[in-house]
Write a structure and sequence with these properties.
The chain is an alpha/beta fold. It has 25 helices and 15 strands. About 30% of the residues are buried. The structure holds adenosine-5'-triphosphate.
C-alpha cells in the first residue's frame, strides 16, 4: 500500500474534484516517506484497520452505551434531576456522560414488574438513544471544525512559505548581481540556504505527519459513526428488545394458560367435588403437575433475569473500553494541538528570519536545533501512536472476548427458549391429557348416571311389585296384627309392672343372699371350730400314739462287721435276732445267752432309711410343738456318728430329720408359717462350746431365763435360720470345721465329746392364730467305754471321767423321772442341764443304743444294753398338757414338779444300773413284761387309749 501510494504520487495532480484532495494527501504522504527514506513504515489507513478493527470499534460503541440503556430501562426511567440535566447538557463535560449518577440506577424493580410498562420504556429508550446520537454528532462536528481550522492554518503556513521563498529568491538575485567579488561569503550563504531548505522540508514532513494523524482520526470517527449507524447500539438493544418481547410473550402465554387451565381444573374439581367421585385424586395430581410447570417457568424467568444481568455486566466493561478510547482521542487532539502550536512558532520564526536577514545564520542554527527537537517530538508521537495501536489491539481482543460471551449468552438464550418451547409443549400435552381425562370423566359420569337411572327404574319396578305383595300381605296380616296389638298391650302392662316386680325380687334376693351369707358364715365358724378341734385331736392322737409307743423309746442298732474285722479271727458275731420279734436281741457273753427286749432292734443290714422311718414320728411331733431328744449311745466305734450324721451318700438322722421338717412345713404352708433355726454345740470335759461361732473355743454358760418363765437358755448361742437343705449342709460344714479347729485329732475328740444339733421349729397359724414352738435335740454322745478297760490316764482319764459323769447323770435324771422323785438332778452335768426342758414333762426321748457285733466288744455291748433297759423302764409324765398356751414358746413346764401323768401312774420296776448290768437274762426276762404290755397296749390303742402299766 505504501509503495503503491509512493508510486502513485506523480499521478495525483491529474485527478480532479473530490479525489484531488485525497490524491494530494497521498502525494504528500509519499513525498514525506521518500524524504524519510524507507526506515519507518507508517501504520495507518482504513484499509489497514481491516475487519477486526471495524468489529472492535462497533463493539466498543455497543458495550460502552448499552449498560446505561439497560439500567435506565430496568429502573423504569425514573431519572433524577441531575441525570436529566446531563442528558440535556451540550456534552461539554465528557466525563459526566460516562459517570451517570448512581442514583439514576439505584431503583431496579423486578423484570416481571417492568413488563407492564414496555411501551413507555421503549419511547424513553428511543429518546435516550436519540440524545446519545446527538451527543455523538456534536463530538464529530467539533472534531470536524477543528480539522477545518487546522487545514486553514496549514494553508496559511503554506502561503507564508511561498512568500518566504519568493523573497529569498529575490535576495539571491540581488546579491548575485551586486556582490560577485566575495566568493567565500557567497558559498556560505548557499550553505545557509540549503539548510533553510532542509528545515523547510522537515517542517513539511511534520505537517504531513500531522495531516496523517488528522486523517487517521477522521477515519476512526467515520468508522465509529458508520459502525454505530450499522450495528452500534442497535444490535444489543435489538437483542434485548427481542428478549423482552419474548419474555413478555411468554408471560402472557403463562397467564393465559393459568387463566385457561385453572378454571378448567376448578370446574373439574367443583364438578367432582363429591366424595364418591373416583377422579378427584387424578385432578389433584394434575393440579400438582400444573403447579410444578409453573414453578419451572418461574425458574426460567429467573434464569433470563440472570442472563440480562450478565449482559449488563458486559456492557459495563464495554463502557470502560469506550472511556479508554475517548481518552486516547483526547490525547491525540492534545498532541495535534501542540504540534500545531510548534508549527506556528516555526513559521513565525521563519517569517522573522525572512524579515531580518542579518540574523539568517542564527535562525538557520535555531532551525537546526529545532529540527532536532522536531525529530524528537516526532519520535515521541510515533511512540504514542504505537502505544495507542497496542491499546487498540487490546481493546479489540477484549471486544472479541465480549463477543464470544455475547455469543454464549445468545446460545443460552436459545437454549432457554428451546426449553420454554419444550415446557410449552409439555404444558400443551398436559392440557390435552387433562382435556381428555375430563372428557372421559364426563363420559363416565354420564354412563354411570344412565346405569343408575336404569337400575333405579328396575328397582322401582321391583319395589312397586313388592309393595303390591306387601299390601296383599297387610290385608291378610291385619287379624294377626290385632292379636299382636293386644299381646303388645298386655306385655306393655307387664313391662310397666316390671320395675316393681324387679325391685321386689331384688329385695327378696338380697334377703336370701344375706341369709345365705349368714348361714355360710356360721357354717364357716362351725367348720373352723371343728377344724381347730380336729387339729387338736389329731395332735393329741399323734401325741398319744407317740406316748403309747413310749415317751422314752429305746432302739438298738447293731453295726455291721467291717471288712477288716471280717478278715480277723474274731469275726464271728455273738449276737442273734428273733425272727418273730424285732424287739428281741440275744447276746452270747461268756457262755451265757442274754436276752434284751427293746422297742426296736435294727440288725446290721438295716438301712439309714429304715432307721429314720422309725424315728420320723418323733420328728413331726416337734412341728406340733413338742420337745424331742434323740440320743445315740454306745461305745466308741459302735456307729453313733454313722447313725446320726451318716455319710455324704447316705445321710443319717440329722439331715433326714431336717429335710422331713422342711417337707412338713412346706405342706402346711398355706395355713402355717414356720421358721426353722439350727444351733450346734459341743460338750467336752463338761465345757459347752458353740460350734457355729467364729471362735468356737469360747465357753458358753447355761442360765435361767430372766423373763421369769423358769426356762433355761444359753446366752450368746448362735441360731442360724435355715430355709433349704442346702442351708443345712452349710451349717453342718461350718460346725465340722469349727469342731476340727478346736481339737488336734478330730476322731478322738469326737469320741470324747457330746455333739448336739438343736433344731427349733416355730410356727404360727394365720387362720386360728395358734403358735407353736418345738425343739428337736439330736445328740451324738461320747463313747461309753469303761475307764478300767481303756486304761486311760491323765487327760484321757479326765475325759473318760467327764464322759462317764455326764452319762451317769443322764441315767440318774431318767431314773429320777421314772421314780417321780421330787428332785431330778438335771444340774449334775452340762448335758442334762442343757436338755432339761427336752427331757421333762411331755417331751419325747429316743435312745439309739449302738452296739458292736464283735465278741470282743460284748462286755461293752452288755453295759450299753443294760443302760438302755434302764432308760426304757422310765415313763415320762404326760399329765402336763402338751398344749402350751398360745404365744408360748415352750412346750412343757420347765421343771419336773409340774409334770403330771396323763395316764394312770406307771409303776416301773426299779432297776439299778449295777444290778441290771449283772442281772443277765433275769433282768431281761423281768423287763420283757412291760415291753410286751406296751406292745399289746399299742395294739389296743384304737379301742380306748389304754393306760399302760409297767
Ligand atoms: N450301720 C452301719 N453300716 C455301715 N457301717 C457302719 C455302720 N455303723 C457304723 N459303721 C462304720 O463303723 C465305723 C465306726 O462308726 P462310728 O464312727 O459312727 O462310730 P462311733 O460310735 O461314732 O465312734 P466314736 O464314738 O469314736 O465317734 C465307721 O467306719 C462307720 O462307717
Amino acid at each position: 500500500e505504501l509503495d503503491r501510494s509512493s508510486e502513485d504520487g506523480g499521478d495525483a495532480e491529474t485527478q480532479g474534484g473530490g479525489g484531488a484532495m485525497k490524491a494530494d494527501r497521498k502525494r504528500r504522504r509519499g513525498s514525506a516517506q521518500r524524504v524519510r527514506g524507507k526506515v519507518q513504515p507508517v501504520r495507518r489507513s482504513s484499509a489497514l484497520l481491516s475487519q477486526a478493527v471495524m468489529f472492535g470499534t462497533r463493539k466498543t460503541w455497543d458495550i460502552g452505551h448499552t449498560p446505561c440503556l439497560q439500567e435506565l430501562w430496568k429502573t423504569d426511567l425514573s431519572l433524577d434531576a441531575s441525570s436529566m440535566d446531563f442528558l440535556m447538557s451540550d456534552g461539554e463535560d465528557e466525563g459526566s456522560f460516562l459517570s451517570l449518577p448512581a442514583a439514576a440506577f439505584s431503583q431496579r424493580p423486578s423484570l416481571t414488574a417492568d413488563f407492564t410498562d414496555t411501551n413507555t420504556q421503549k419511547q424513553q429508550q428511543q429518546l435516550l438513544i436519540q440524545s446519545l446520537q446527538d451527543k455523538v454528532c456534536e463530538f464529530q462536528a467539533r472534531i470536524h471544525s477543528e480539522e477545518v481550522a487546522r487545514q486553514l492554518l496549514v494553508q496559511h503556513h503554506r502561503v507564508k512559505q511561498q512568500t518566504f521563498r519568493g523573497n529569498r529568491k529575490l535576495q539571491e538575485e540581488q546579491s548575485s548581481a551586486t556582490c560577485n567579488s566575495v566568493t567565500v561569503l557567497q558559498d556560505s550563504e548557499d550553505l545557509d540556504c540549503f539548510r533553510c531548505l532542509e528545515n523547510e522540508q522537515l517542517v513539511i514532513r511534520l505537517r504531513t505527519q500531522v495531516k496523517e494523524l488528522e486523517e487517521e482520526l477522521l477515519d476512526h470517527s467515520q468508522e465509529v459513526e458508520r459502525l454505530r449507524s450499522e450495528l452500534g447500539a442497535t444490535d444489543l438493544e435489538k437483542q434485548l428488545e427481542r428478549l423482552l418481547v419474548e419474555n413478555e410473550r411468554l408471560k402472557q402465554e403463562l397467564k393465559t394458560c393459568r387463566s385457561s387451565e385453572l378454571p378448567k381444573l376448578d370446574a373439574t374439581a367443583e364438578t367432582c367435588s363429591c366424595s364418591c367421585c373416583p377422579y378427584r385424586q387424578d385432578v389433584e395430581v394434575l393440579r400438582k403437575e400444573v403447579s410444578c410447570w409453573e414453578a419451572q417457568a418461574r425458574q426460567k424467568e429467573q434464569r433470563l433475569a440472570e442472563v440480562e444481568q450478565l449482559l449488563q455486566d458486559r456492557s459495563c466493561r464495554g463502557e470502560a473500553l469506550q472511556r479508554q478510547l475517548e481518552e486516547s482521542r483526547r490525547r491525540q487532539v492534545e498532541v495535534e494541538h501542540r504540534l500545531s502550536l510548534r508549527l506556528q512558532e516555526f513559521e513565525d520564526e521563519l517569517s522573522c528570519q525572512a524579515a531580518m536577514s542579518p540574523r539568517a545564520k542564527f535562525v538557520s542554527q535555531m532551525v537546526e536545533v529545532e529540527s532536532a527537537d522536531s525529530q524528537k517530538i516526532l519520535a515521541e508521537m510515533q511512540k504514542k501512536n504505537n502505544a495507542l495501536q497496542e491499546q487498540l489491539n487490546v481493546q479489540r481482543q477484549l471486544l472479541r472476548e465480549l463477543e464470544t460471551q455475547l455469543h454464549e449468552s445468545q446460545r443460552t438464550c436459545a437454549q432457554l427458549r428451546t426449553q420454554i418451547v419444550v415446557y410449552e409443549g409439555e404444558m400443551e400435552r398436559t392440557r390435552g391429557r387433562l382435556e381428555v381425562e375430563v372428557q372421559n370423566l364426563e363420559e363416565e359420569k354420564n354412563r354411570v348416571i344412565e346405569e343408575a337411572f336404569i337400575r333405579a327404574e328396575s328397582e322401582m319396578k321391583a319395589v312397586h311389585e313388592n309393595l303390591a305383595g306387601v299390601r296383599m300381605n297387610l290385608l291378610s296380616l291385619q287379624p294377626a296384627l290385632r292379636t299382636l296389638t293386644s299381646d303388645y298391650n298386655c306385655l306393655k302392662r307387664q313391662v310397666q309392672d316390671f320395675p316393681f316386680m324387679l325391685e321386689k325380687a331384688i329385695s327378696e334376693a338380697k334377703q336370701e343372699i344375706c341369709q345365705v351369707i349368714n348361714d355360710v358364715s356360721s357354717t364357716n365358724q362351725e367348720l373352723l371350730r371343728k377344724y381347730k378341734r380336729e387339729m387338736n385331736l389329731r395332735k393329741k392322737c399323734h401325741n398319744e400314739l407317740v406316748r403309747l409307743k413310749g415317751n422314752i423309746r429305746v432302739f438298738c442298732r447293731v453295726r455291721p462287721v467291717s471288712q477288716e474285722e471280717q478278715d480277723s479271727a474274731d469275726a464271728r458275731t455273738a449276737l442273734s435276732f428273733d425272727s418273730d420279734d424285732d424287739a428281741i436281741l440275744y447276746l452270747s457273753n461268756k457262755g451265757k445267752i442274754m436276752t434284751f427286749e427293746l422297742d426296736k432292734v435294727f440288725p446290721p443290714q438295716a438301712t439309714q432309711e429304715e432307721v429314720f422311718q422309725e424315728v420320723q414320728s418323733l420328728v413331726t411331733s416337734c412341728i406340733d410343738g413338742f420337745n424331742v431328744c434323740i440320743f445315740a449311745y454306745g461305745q466308741t466305734g459302735s456307729g453313733k456318728t454313722y447313725t446320726m450324721e451318716g455319710v455324704a451318700d447316705d445321710p443319717g438322722i440329722n439331715q433326714r430329720a431336717l429335710r422331713l421338717l422342711f417337707f412338713e412345713v412346706t405342706e402346711k404352708a398355706p395355713d402355717w408359717d414356720y421358721s426353722i433355726t439350727v444351733s450346734m454345740v459341743e460338750i467336752y470335759n463338761e465345757t459347752l462350746r458353740d460350734l457355729l461361732r467364729e471362735n468356737p473355743t469360747d465357753k458358753l454358760d447355761i442360765k435361767l431365763n430372766p423373763d421369769g418363765s423358769g426356762q433355761l437358755y444359753v446366752p450368746g448361742l448362735i441360731e442360724i435360720a435355715v430355709q433349704s437343705p442346702e442351708d443345712i449342709n452349710k451349717v453342718f460344714e461350718l460346725g465340722h470345721v469349727n469342731r476340727a479347729t478346736a481339737c488336734t485329732n478330730l476322731n478322738e475328740h469326737s469320741s470324747r465329746s457330746h455333739a448336739l444339733l438343736i433344731i427349733t421349729v416355730s410356727g404360727s397359724n394365720s387362720t386360728t392364730g395358734t403358735c407353736t414352738q418345738g425343739r428337736l435335740n439330736l445328740v451324738d454322745l461320747a463313747g461309753s467305754e469303761r475307764i478300767g478297760k481303756s486304761g486311760a490316764e491323765g487327760s484321757r482319764l479326765r475325759e473318760a471321767q467327764c464322759i462317764n459323769k455326764s452319762l451317769s447323770a443322764l441315767g440318774d435324771v431318767i431314773s429320777a423321772l421314772r421314780s417321780k422323785q421330787s428332785h431330778v438332778p438335771f444340774r449334775n452335768s452340762r448335758l442334762t442341764y442343757l436338755l432339761q426342758d427336752s427331757l421333762s414333762g411331755d417331751s419325747k426321748t429316743l435312745m439309739m443304743v449302738q452296739i458292736s457285733p464283735l465278741p470282743g466288744n460284748m462286755s461293752e455291748s452288755v453295759c450299753s444294753l443294760k443302760f438302755a433297759q434302764r432308760v426304757r423302764s422310765v415313763e415320762l409324765s404326760s399329765s402336763s398338757s402338751s398344749r402350751r398356751p398360745e404365744n408360748s414358746s415352750t412346750s412343757s413346764s420347765p421343771t419336773h414338779n409340774s409334770v403330771e401323768l396323763d395316764s394312770p401312774p406307771v409303776t416301773p420296776i426299779p432297776l439299778p444300773i449295777s444290778r441290771a448290768s449283772s442281772a443277765g437274762s433275769t433282768v431281761s426276762s423281768a423287763s420283757r413284761t412291760p415291753s410286751g404290755s406296751r406292745r399289746r397296749s399299742q395294739s389296743q390303742l384304737s379301742a380306748g387309749r389304754l393306760k399302760l402299766t409297767a
